[in-house]
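Task card 7
Instruction: Convert sequence to structure tokens.
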Amino acid sequence: MDRRTHIPYAEAKALFDKYLKTKYLRHHSRETEVIMRALAAQLGEDAEFWGICGLLHDLDLDEIGDDMLRHGTRTVELLKEAAYDIPPLFSAILAHVEGIPGLPFRRDSRLEYILAGAENITGLITAYVILRPDKKIAGTKVASLMKKFKSPAFAAKVNRDFIRDAAEYAGMELPQFMGIAVSAMESIAEETGM
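Output:
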């Protein structure tokens, strides 16, 4: 079987549609995608590739359920089964699971740090929006989000260190990073119901 070293967006979207069925996971992955695209554009990186990393990073979660020791690894297996051989994509997917007990993966590149932060910030922003009276992302103020970020009890599962690291690797202050993430998520609010 020939291995392909590039994945066109239409093929990435087909894999997303095939493997991710849970509404929350689909929204989270799309949010991560648009944040990654926005950050790549800001940083002069390949927005298409970074977006695909965001779209596919949790591809395995519906399949593996609670077996988090397979998270990331199973996504890479699924991509290899589909005849892709894209080491930077594989390493970003594996590195975003850093911190799961029992998994040896560590972030090493700017892409890996930023993917881990981008996927975590979706949780913080979503939790904040759910608490708003209208439950809409429109009008979200970064200053208000920063206050929630500083409260460890709020969205406690969100890894704030990953978000801080991502902002640092992007060469941004945390509020700028958050502002880009909010704007990106707002761009697909109709799709995600926010």
